[in-house]
Amino acid sequence: MEPPSREMETTLFEKAMLGKWDEVVNICTENPMALVSSITRLQDTALHLAVSDGQEQTVRKLTEIISEQPNPEMVLGVANKRGNTPLHFAALMGNVAMCKRIAVVDSSLIALRNHEGETPLFMAVLFGKKEAFQCLAQMLTLDEVYSCSRRKNGDTILHSAISGDHFDLALHIIKLFGEGLVNAVNEEGIAPLHLLAEKPSAFPSGSRLGFFNRIIYHCIYVINDDHKDVVPHDYYDPQLPMLPVDQGRPKYERNRPNYPDNYRTCVNFFRLFWNFITFGMYYVTGRCFSFFS
């Protein structure tokens, strides 16, 4: 099969820029070699552009064409001028569907590095895309995830998560690796805890919050991963009896307000405020009644 001509590459670029993705797919179907053609100044391919534009259906169709070719992982691993593959783009965008679609062809694509030494797994953390990180990490062994978690300057994914203020993701990484990354240092000898210490705003003692901001701070809802159900949400066992929600609970716990524990500060504050207003109204009404009587 002959490589695409310069004219075909120009046409492919123009169709992509105009959003005519069906025509892009048709061109690549007729000449699969067009899938490895660099059609922008940054040497992006049609798949790079489709991922960047969030075209999930186009990405699905193009990956299906690529999967039918010899060595599909080489086609999907074509990098642009900065060393980024289409999977890098999908990871930094946090698009889980496109990450799955590309990585399922060959999980080794998750370990490919750009010119900064960043893997798609690293890129997901760099941009705070927790779902994309989890998606890619689930396709690798723990050792493989660990090997993908450093870039050229020695920064780990934990360094990156803390630097970007993605603390929820950082906590998830710590739970995944334990002390393996907590004590890791980069080329400058900086550990993730050093970076955290440089962010006093991450702690209440390091921020001068006003009265109402302190209330909001204590009312922020934090999801606790430790209490997530182990059984998938779509699991159903017909042998289990259907019991009322309150059955089996002590009487004093039944019919209690259904809000997270850390909302209690907010609820108690508004209760106090409401009681104050109610008492004031009764007091003013009583004074007025005694004045006119």
UniProtKB/TrEMBL annotation:
* Highest taxon, organism lineage: Eukaryota
Q: Which Pfam families match?
A: Ank_2
Q: What is this protein called?
A: Uncharacterized protein
What is the protein's species of origin? Juglans regia
